[in-house]
Each structure stands twice: as structure tokens, then as C-alpha cells.
Amino acid sequence: MSAPPDTVPSAALGAWAIGARLGRADVLHGIDLSIAQARWTSIVGPNGAGKSTLLKVLAGLLAHTGRVTLLGQPLSSLPGRARAQKLSWLGQNEASANELTAYDVVMLGRLPHQAWLAPASALDRLAVEQALRATQAWDWRGRPLGQLSGGERQRVLLARALAVQAQVLLMDEPLANLDPPHQADWLALVRELVAGGKTVVSVLHEISLALRADEMVIMAGGAVAHQGNCRDPATHRALERVFDHRIAIEPLLDQWVALPKS
Amino acid sequence: MIATLHEGATGQARTAITLGAGLLLVSLALLLLGGATGSTGIASLRHLMAARHDPVAWQIVWDIRLPRTAGAWLAGALLGLAGAVAQGLFRNPLADPYLLGSASGASLAVAAAMVLFGASPLATPWLVRLGLTGAAFVGAVAAVLLTLLLAQGVQHTLRLLLAGVIVGVVLGALTALIMLLVPAVQQTLQVFMFGSTAFVGWSSCALMALAWLVCMLVAWMLSHALDGLTLGEATALSLGLPLPAMRAALVVVLALATGAAVAQTGLIAFVGLAAPHLVRSVVKTTHGRLILLSGLMGGVLLLAADILARALIAPQELPVGVLTAVLGGSYLLWLMYRRTDYGQPL
Question: Which residues on chain B are in Cβ contact (under 8 Å) with A96?
């Protein structure tokens, strides 16, 4: 439809003519998308717009039509392990690892790098420690997940996704259960990752936080309504439009915030 | 407790190794005790040693008590292993090795075989007994296959669980029908359904040991899939695990371990459910260790229950399945109340 897939080497993720169904419902249709490398892109939209479904398709976790490329390679032709080394996924409300310690959970993020049945290497342990320290979860590494609060748990799961040390990170509602200080920590962490050349894509329902990203993909009704820079007024107008003009995007200090309108 | 909670992952590893060594020691002690436990109650170890000079007594120990004792441990180990695999595979702490219909399949096959071979309770020639064992195994595996067929594969956990329940109910009803139509098989079938280690010989032990080794090895090799699954299906897939193949292999392990145990000792309740829980209440660890430890724990549980069943009202004997049901049930009840104290759902 738009540019042929292999001519966009700077794209971390590319999607062409994506369609997806959940059961009988047509959730995504006709999506063309290119997500820039070493940038933070946030995906926003009203409930049921297909944000999480799109993220799953981009991660190669959901059957779909059309094609997706990861770092210039067709996703469907990548073996599972090679994909897992390049792309890290943090889902929403899916973990039940109550009986594993935080350390063991984060070590699972090293699976794509470990030979089958091989014990953890010094490199793996270093990656796990770095990830746990980056999310301030190192102190409770020996505690089972079942004994952590929602926010503490989320930070361990985030560390699990970081431990993969993948080039591309996809996160579905990564700020769920996090209090404002840890939300700020998360923002700083993402900035650091992006500065280090990683690509971050996150689905966020908190518009003001989503506006802190570099790029924004706005979805409505299973299609992309707008894609643009977060500081671009056209993006702000598109946001107000998909939310039925019930919000207003206003500047505050050096950022943009979404205010509800009555 | 608080101190151990804050320890690093190496602390958990140490606890796991200590638990494993402890379980092995207890197993060894129970094996000796089991060899010394006869219809007259528990004899002393010196008595057991003295039996070496008495050919009749030695024959009782070597041909009856020891294989039975080893068999109880092995059947428990198979059930504990199957329980750990089932709970990981279905991501449900209440999952049970009998979940896929294997228990009802085995009962139905045994009932059918008894009707076909002619039911002569207990004193049947070894050929018939071997036939019953084989029938139980075939029935268990066939029921699991039927469940898989109804669930159209292993990918949908909920569908798999439902199919297992349906197969269990239908096959159970058929077994009840056979018992109604041919009342002569009732008594023998009851022995099977309560579970008993009384008929385990050395050949059964060899069979179970082989099954245990194979299942343990395969399950241990696939334990990463179970660890990954605790993070949810999508995350497990995103980690590059070949889930469909690994799941299929784990279902085969589950069927083989359960089938081998049920075929030799009948339906012994709760060991498969309780063993992994007991291990997890001591140490929170990855499935590689959990599977191994649950096997050892299952062996200890069933062997201890078997010795109790033999000794409690000697020279009479309690059906060991009844004892494990009572003990396991009370343990689960306690677990449920304790977990409620923590404020977590089971």
C-alpha cells in the first residue's frame, strides 16, 4: 500500500495492511504503521480501539493478516528465539507467578539468550541484577511474587522485560499500579533506554503521560486515526477529536497535559 | 521466616537442596520401616536383620514387604511428579494428575477387563493381574487421548479442563453401570478404586521406576516452559519458547506418569495434589527443582501413608487411598485457611 517493506531500514517496526480478529469481532483493519528506531512511541485511543491487539500483532503474538517487519526483517520468518532476543514484551494482567521469587521471574527474561538446559551465566546474572536495580526491585529479589503489592509486582515484571536486553520493547500499560514517584522513575528509565538506542512502544491510557513520548499513534475503531510527534499541534487536535472533544490538550510548564472538559 | 524471605535467590537454592536431601533420608528410613512392617505391626530393625537367617521370614520380607514398600514410594513419586506438571501446565494450584480423565479411564478399563477375564477377587493368577494392570494403563492413556480429542488439542487450558471433567463423569457413569450389571466385580473394583499397594511385585516396581525416570527427565528438560507459562501465555511465547510442542510433550508425561501409577496401585487420592503444595510451602523455586522435589515428596507421603495403613489396625489393613484422602483433605483444608489469612485466594 505505502512504501514497500524493505526500503525503510530506520524503522524498528513496520506494519502493512494489518487486520486481526478476536473471535468473530473485527478488531483491527487496514493498519499501516512505521515505528522509528531509538524513539519512544506511545499508542493511545478510546477503550476498545484495538491498542492492545495492535501491540500483540506487532509482537508476533496474535494471528493476523498483512505483514509486520522487525528491524527490517519479516516477523513471520524469524524463528521464535531470534525474535525473542530482539523484541521484549510486557503484557497486561497476565502474570500469576506467585510461587516464584522476583529473582527467578526476572531470570526468565534471559531464556532467549540461554542455551537449552544451560545454567545461568555470569552475564545473565549481571543482566538480572541491572534490571532489578533499574526498577528499584533489587531489595526484594528473594521474595515470591505472591507476597508483593501490585506496584512492587509491576516493577519486577518490568525488570523481567528489561532483562531480555532487547532492541525493541513493547509494553502494554506498563504504569498500571505504579505510584507517581515510580511513574516518574519509569519515564526516566524509558528516556535512558531510548538514549541508548532502544525503541520503546507503550500502550498508555493516561494521556498526559503518553504525551511525554516522542511519537504518538492515535487509534480509533480498530484503525490508526493519526500518527505524529507528541509536540505537534496536529497530534493534539487529533487526540481531542478521537476523545469526542471531551479533553483539551494544554501546555503546563514545559509539558503538555490532557484536561477533562465538562 | 522474615529473614529467609529477604534472602537472595541463593537462599532458596540452599533450602531446596536441604529439602531434597531431607526427603531422601526420610525415604530411606521409611523403606527400612516398610520392610519391617508386617501384619503383626511394626517389628524392630533387629528383628528384620534376624529374618535373614529364617528363609520363610526372609521370603516374606523380600517377596512381599520390600516390593510393596518400594512400589508405594514409586507410585507416590509418579503422582507427585504428575501433580507438579499438571499444576504448572494448567496454571492452577488445584490441578490434579487425574484431571484429564485418566482415573476414570483406568477404572472403566479395569471393570471391563474383570468382566471379560472373569472376576476372581484378589487370588487371580498373575497373568490376569498383569492383564488388569495393562488394562488400567491403556484405559488411563485412552481417556487422556479422548480428553485431548474433545478439547481439540492442548492449547486451550479451560477447554482441556472442561473436557477432562466431562470424560471423567461419562466414564465414571459407565463404570457404575458395569458394577450394577455385574455385581460380582464390585468387590475387586472397590479395592482398585480405594487404591492399594498390596499387589505390587518387583516387576511392577521396575515398570514404575522406568516410567518415573523417563517422566522426570522429560519434565525436567521442559521445566522452562512451565516457568515461562507462569508469566502468562503471551509472555511465554514472547520469550521464544516453542509452547505447542512443549505442552504436548508435558501432557504425554502427565498421562504416562499417572497411568503407570494408577495401573499398579489403583486410584490413590490427593498425593498428586498435596505433594507440590507441601514442597512450595517450604521453598519457592523454579519448576526444574519443584518437579524433582514433588516426586520425592509424593514418594514419602504415599509410603508413610501405606505404612500407617498397614500398622494402624494390624493385622487388619486400611485401604491406603482412604488414608491419603483423609490426610490430604485435612492438609488442603488447613492450607486453604492459612492462605485466607494471607489474604490471597487459593
Answer: 91, 230, 232
Q: Which residues of A touch B (CB under 8 A)?
A: 56, 59-61, 79-85, 87-91, 94-101, 103-105, 107-109, 111-112, 116-117, 139-144, 146-147, 157, 160, 164
Query: CB neighbours of A13 closer than 8 A, spacing ≥ 6?
Result: A33, A34, A35, A58, A68, A69, A70, A168, A199, A201
Distance, CA of B32 to CA of B36 (rounded, Å): 6
Q: Tell me the CA end-to-end span of chain B in Å, nearest whole number.
A: 21
Give residue for cell 500499560. A173
- What length does chain A have? 262
- Cβ contact, residue pair A108, B239, below 8 Å: yes
Which chain A residues contact residue B4 at CB under 8 A?
Answer: 142
Strands B41-42 and A168-172: unpaired
Order across the sheet with A168-172: list the strands. A87-90, A168-172, A199-203, A40-44, A215-220, A223-229
Q: Which of B327, B346, B343, B321 lies closest to B335, judged by CA?
A: B346
Dist CA B205 CA B215 (whole Å): 15
pLDDT truncated to tens, each residue of chain B (346 aa)?
333 333 445 677 888 999 999 999 999 999 888 877 766 655 655 666 666 677 777 777 777 788 889 999 999 999 999 999 988 988 877 778 888 888 889 889 888 888 887 655 454 555 566 677 778 888 888 898 898 889 886 667 778 888 989 999 999 999 999 988 888 888 878 878 888 887 788 888 988 999 999 999 999 999 999 999 999 888 999 999 998 899 889 988 888 898 888 888 888 888 998 899 889 888 888 999 999 999 999 999 999 999 988 888 767 788 888 888 888 788 878 877 776 544 444 4
Are residues B221 and A117, on separate chains, in Cβ contact within 8 Å?
Answer: yes
Chain B nearest C-alpha distance from A89 (Å): 6
- Strand, coil or helix: A30: strand
Test B227 with A103 for CB contact under 8 angstroms: no
Contact call for A105 and B237, based on CB within 8 A = no
Instruction: Check: CB of residue B100 under 8 Å from CB of residue B164.
Output: yes
DSSP B76-113: HHHHHHHHHHHHHHTT-TT--GGGGSHHHHHHHHHHHH
CA–CA min distance B287, chain A (Å): 9
Closest to A101 (Cβ–Cβ): which among B12, B231, B342?
B12
What residues of B are in contact with residue A80 (Cβ under 8 Å)? 237, 240-242
Q: Hey, what amino acid is at A83?
A: R
Taking residue A234's Cβ as centre, other Cβ atoms within 10 Å add up to: 10
Distance CA B331, CA B329 (A): 5
